[in-house]
Amino acid sequence: MTGRLFAILCLATFAASPALANKVFVSNEKGNTVTVIDSKTWEAIEEFPAGNRPRGITISPDGALLYVCASDDDAVRVFDTETYEELYTLPSGPDPELFVIHPTGNPLYIANEDDNLVTVTDTASHTVIAEVPVGVEPEGMAISPDAKWVVNTSETTNMAHFISTDDYQIKHNVLVDQRPRYAQYTSDGSKLFVTSEIGGTVSVMEIDGSGAPTLVRKISFEVPGVLPEWLQPVGAKVTSDGKWLFIALGPANRVAVVNAETYEVAKYILVGQRVWQLAFTPDEKYLLTTNGNSNDITVIDVEAQEAIKSVQVGQQPWGVVVKPSD
Length: 326
Description:
mainly beta; four-stranded antiparallel β-sheet; about 5% helix; globular
């Protein structure tokens, strides 16, 4: 076989190879399991036990480890993303709900809802590095792109707390509307969005060069035929180009599509019942929603801004994260 023919055959084989799928992991709060979905077929391929009341869920930067907040176990459970075997637990403080991981994979910053703390856990030594007192009922967690700041939202205090990752001290507090649930930075770190479930708004903060926030806008929502009290912003995701912000509106069963530059709502996408958290696939082609009362996820085509698929999962899905294909 000539070298040229061999090269042609290799190219043909490569071209014919199917695209590798991403794995989607969904925590089922009431079912006490994690459902695994293949992003190529959009079918559930596995479901495994994940402790008691699994909620927050994330993946290590290398894709090898799945971290799950087992809220009623007062621990973070750690699983192999290929075998789904539970490897060990990490100390988390009481009632861990949501967390974020440092871009290096260490440490993990955990909101402890019942103890008014953010716990900082070393993922290598499996020890607690620090405990940061915050407001009442901490939930939402975000980390700035430069990893210099961790933001916690406290549901009862109605504040976003800006914690320095250098010394674990709160440097800034920003009052937002009632019951803040989630915080999300833009990829360039210039803005932060905080959802307020009962307030029915999303607070927009501009972030200066030092990391300090300034509240500049509040986004509100209105859907014909939907009671205002059902418009409850929870999960949020912004595209990497900073153009589009997607907001899960809880019992309104809608995802709001917001122009992240003008802050105007462009449209509402009908999804499953009680939409809670959101996650992009790595290429941002799809946005996935967890729908707690219909026990499914909705797959949204990001470019078309339309729902295209519903996938049944376990009982009361809460969190969702996507592992890139190897």
